[in-house]
């Protein structure tokens, strides 16, 4: 798992390390790692044009020392200084000694020079940035955005809040971010994610000074370790039975998608109960189907309730019935609307509950999501005593104790109707295996979000995706995270 940190946590960890190392040593480690990534991105360094955007703090110092190293390898490096009086003095001397040039940001030659550069290094603001970018920094950012060079952010893209990913106005649109010591949360969540591009972590020795993270990102290997393939002693009941309560006779789509996604995540068995029984039977002969309610479905190890289920009295009764059980329940869509009216239904539960709101559903519980998505998910989870999976570009999963997962596999291709129903089915199937895997509830939800995003990426390779494509790609997504070659995956290639 990749630990995700706030700017304050990183600063606190840096203090003892700074005290224990020679002056400037950490910045040299940072600059060496930064120059090495830039060298790799450029391919050949000799003769290439590099523009450094340099602010008045240590972030600018990193850029200047990295620029000096690139100049030493023959690059034509020019530093553009936001505040020439306050630019890092040692960094500036190092750059000049290596043959680098220096311009003030106010110099009319600066924007065209940035536009022509092969690589632009954004060292304007790091974790010391506060509020929106000032005017001169905005102008340099526009010049970089309009140019053809590789845009690389030093530590964090200037203009994003390193802890929340909030962007107040303009932020540097990086293709790559070289971050030091620890991955800052703002690089993977909120608007920051869209500005960071590919994140490269450079070790500077911060490791054991960092606290245990409270926010994490799962890798493919982490997810593979949390999935249990069937073994010789298994039967259809021992690998988890999911109950799906979704859709209606008029709107069978959500039921078909949710049931299909649950099946394709490969628990032992999927049961469906509700008004879309005919549609589900026709689409999924593998499911056990009844027109009745949860009590008619038979035994399950986890329920999914809500997608396309409506908000009438009957739907409310179904929700109350499953929330009164001691089984894991995933509450989505219409059932979230009902639950927002009666949050006590979940507060009094002791069994695992996962709520999967998008932003508008989240707001029904009282407050809008706002710009701090991790903070928002944690607050609602603590308030309700349930795991909250807040959907979005980077889906955030928080448990009532504050442990949080930020999904890294999401793609904007998922922004299409029905993909949320698919996520519910996947998550229901993972929750149903908790009895055998012992998987923590928030981790189960995070595993589901990871697989959902992977399926989205695989489906999007073949062109614009619709929700049903995600269901078809699920076996391939599971195979991908577990390292199984697609050729061995049978009908997911269809
Ligand atoms: N500590 C370490 O061990 C290591 C730290 N490292 C590096 O240091 C970075 C942190 O450096 P930092 O603390 O100097 O802050 P930094 O991000 O450069 O910005 C502060 C300057 O920006 C200015 N400014 C603020 N807001 C602004 C705005 N909106 N728009 C425009 N300007 C604004 C503010 O100016 P002022 O407000 O005073 O006018 C101040 O001068 C960190 O991200 C990493 O890269 C690495 O070398 C590894 C070792
Ligand atoms: N821009 C985006 N980038 C990544 N994922 C997205 C984006 N927009 C939506 N998604 C994902 O698509 C799914 C949409 O769910 P939802 O809004 O409930 O749709 P529906 O109700 O139509 O099924 C969620 O998993 C969400 O995280
Ligand atoms: K920066």
Q: Helix content range of the residues, please?
A: 40-55%
DSSP, total strands: 19
Radius of gyration: 25 Å
Unreliable stretches (pLDDT < 50, length at least 5) are 490-494
InterPro entries: CARKD, Nnr, Ribokinase-like, YjeF_N_dom, YjeF_N_dom_sf
Family: Belongs to the NnrD/CARKD family.
Organism: Blastococcus goldschmidtiae
Pfam family, one: Carb_kinase
Detailed description of the structure:
The chain has helices at residues 7-20, 25-42, 58-72, 89-97, 110-116, 135-146, 190-196, 220-225, 253-264, 277-283, 294-297, 313-323, 334-341, 344-347, 359-363, 373-384, 419-432, 434-437, 441-460, 467-482, and strands at 2-5, 49-54, 76-81, 101-104, 119-123, 150-154, 176-180, 183-184, 198-202, 215-217, 241-245, 269-273, 288-290, 302-305, 329-331, 353-355, 387-390, 396-398, 404-406. It is α/β, with parallel strands linked by helices and 494 residues long. The chain has a twelve-stranded mixed β-sheet with strand order 8-1-10-19-18-17-16-15-14-11-12-13, sandwiched between helices. It has a seven-stranded parallel β-sheet with strand order 4-3-2-5-6-7-9, with helices on both faces. α9 packs across α17 (419-432). The chain is elongated. It starts with a strand and ends in a 12-residue tail after the last helix. Residues 333, 358, 391-393, 395, 410-412, 414-415, 417-421, 423, 452 line the site of adenosine-5'-diphosphate.
